[in-house]
């Protein structure tokens, strides 16, 4: 259908091009990313003429005023844009793009590629390079885009581009836009550490993410962490989680938890008798992870999911180390607090992210076995045996003591008592 649209546009004296990431991905892989929206740029028609053509194929939706995008519902969606002015040249249109690898256009009908800034050459050289000196001034978010693209494609950022990034004022970027770029970095890169390292080098961490910046130089015990400081450990954990995330039911939660899991160490790390410790960094980290994500206007579900994993990330190892003394109640409480399957993914990355080969399988097998023996689902909390209606049936009336009794019933359940045993105990106490 897109070819038909392109022919109709051509018959009206216009020309339509694939643009942006579509051309880049096509040249990299021979095909565009499946399910991704397709950006198309139309020349030679005005807005009304383009809407008239598109109306034949569906209901056009116009988004934006200054630079309107005309969308057609399709899978994937097609986003048609027009140049800022009718007289703009192809080269000038491409110059508005951020990086050379995104500044190419491909004629929908002929397949001819317009490449005014050597984007194909930079693709071959695995290089992120700006199109003009003004790209970051026009939109400072492009600094984040550069690092996430470098991570996604394992590209280097050209030296002059890096210098421009270092000079860019990042103060006025909307938090939710930053969150979107960080999500792409964490979710789409095989090695997110490449982009995170560029964030350190260009000053992004120091300027916009001081909690992450404080991880740099935060010492750890050489015995337990031969890889170095907390930042180096975090980079390794994030990369390992990037490989494990295919097993996750909520990859965004897992990856942000990997990035933020040790935020509490800078404020809890101390040295006693030559031993470096960070007791309580999990509790402190939960608080800081919430603040970090709130500052980026993250969704409530992302904040809750990440903070839970950060708070619990040490428990699988701690329980395993004292496995002969761990009660069934402790296992039940853990299952009730957090999705243990997701927690084990983070704990595995944390365990292995230390610059050396380590076998996490014994920890995973032991904890899963204990959960299975208790008949629990590691991905679901525990449903209380006794509900409010059961207490009412016993003659109790809702009131100040009602919640306390409910909590006592659940505590007995965690201790392993059956529903009937719990109800009998309540009857005795009435």
- Helical content stands at 40-55%
Largest sheet: 7 strands, mixed
Report the sheet-strand fraction. 5-15%
Radius of gyration: 28 Å
Q: How many structural domains?
A: 3
Q: Compute the separation of the termini in Å.
A: 74 Å
Q: Poorly predicted ranges (pLDDT <50, ≥5 residues)? A: none
Mean pLDDT: 93
**CATH top level of the largest domain?**
Mainly Alpha
What is the CATH architecture annotation of the largest domain?
Answer: Orthogonal Bundle
Q: How many helix segments? A: 24
Architecture overview:
The structure is a single chain. This protein has a 7-stranded mixed sheet with strand order 3-4-5-2-1-6-7. It has a two-stranded parallel sheet with strand order 8-9. The chain is an alpha+beta fold and 430 residues long. The chain has 3 domains: 2-122, Beta Polymerase, domain 2 (2-Layer Sandwich); 209-373, Hypothetical protein af1432; 388-429, no CATH class. The protein contains 24 helices and 11 strands. Helix 7 (142-153) packs parallel to helix 9 (175-188). The chain is globular and about 90 Å long.
């Amino acid at each position: 259908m897109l070819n038909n649209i392109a022919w109709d546009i051509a018959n009206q004296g216009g020309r339509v091009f694939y643009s942006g990431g579509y051309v880049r991905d096509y040249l990299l892989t021979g095909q565009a990313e499946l399910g991704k929206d397709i950006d198309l740029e139309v020349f030679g028609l005005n807005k009304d003429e383009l809407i008239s053509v598109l109306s034949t194929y569906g209901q056009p939706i116009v988004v934006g005023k200054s630079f309107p995008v005309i969308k057609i519902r399709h899978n994937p969606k097609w986003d048609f844009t027009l140049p800022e002015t009718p007289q703009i040249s192809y080269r000038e249109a491409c110059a508005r793009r951020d990086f050379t690898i995104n500044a190419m256009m491909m004629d929908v009908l002929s397949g001819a590629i317009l490449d005014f800034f050597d984007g194909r050459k930079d693709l071959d050289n695995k290089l992120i390079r700006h199109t003009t000196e003004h790209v970051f001034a026009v939109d400072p978010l492009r600094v984040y885009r550069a690092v996430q693209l470098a991570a996604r494609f394992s590209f280097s950022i050209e030296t002059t581009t890096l210098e421009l990034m270092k000079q860019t004022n990042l103060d006025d970027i909307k938090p939710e836009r930053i969150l979107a770029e960080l999500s792409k970095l964490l979710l789409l890169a095989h090695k997110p550490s490449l982009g995170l390292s560029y964030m350190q080098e260009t000053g992004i961490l120091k300027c916009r993410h001081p909690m992450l910046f404080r991880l740099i130089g935060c010492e750890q015990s050489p015995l337990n962490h031969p890889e170095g400081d907390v930042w180096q450990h975090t980079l390794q954990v994030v990369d390992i989680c990037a490989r494990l995330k295919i097993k996750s039911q909520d990859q965004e939660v897992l990856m942000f938890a990997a990035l933020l899991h040790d935020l509490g160490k800078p404020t809890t790390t101390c040295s006693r008798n030559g031993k470096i410790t960070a007791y309580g960094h999990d509790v402190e980290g939960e608080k800081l992870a919430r603040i970090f994500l709130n500052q980026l206007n993250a969704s409530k579900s992302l904040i809750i999911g990440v903070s839970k994993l950060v708070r619990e990330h040490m428990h699988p190892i701690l329980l395993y180390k004292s496995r002969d003394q761990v009660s069934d109640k402790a296992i039940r409480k853990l299952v009730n607090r957090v999705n243990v399957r997701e927690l084990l993914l983070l704990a595995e990355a944390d365990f292995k992210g230390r610059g050396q080969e380590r076998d996490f399988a014994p920890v995973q097998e032991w904890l899963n076995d204990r959960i299975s023996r208790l008949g629990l689902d590691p991905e679901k909390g525990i449903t209380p045996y006794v509900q409010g209606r059961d207490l009412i049936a016993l003659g109790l009336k809702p009131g100040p003591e009602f919640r306390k009794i409910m909590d006592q019933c659940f505590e007995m359940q965690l201790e392993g008592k059956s529903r009937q045993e719990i109800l009998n105990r309540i009857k005795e106490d009435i």
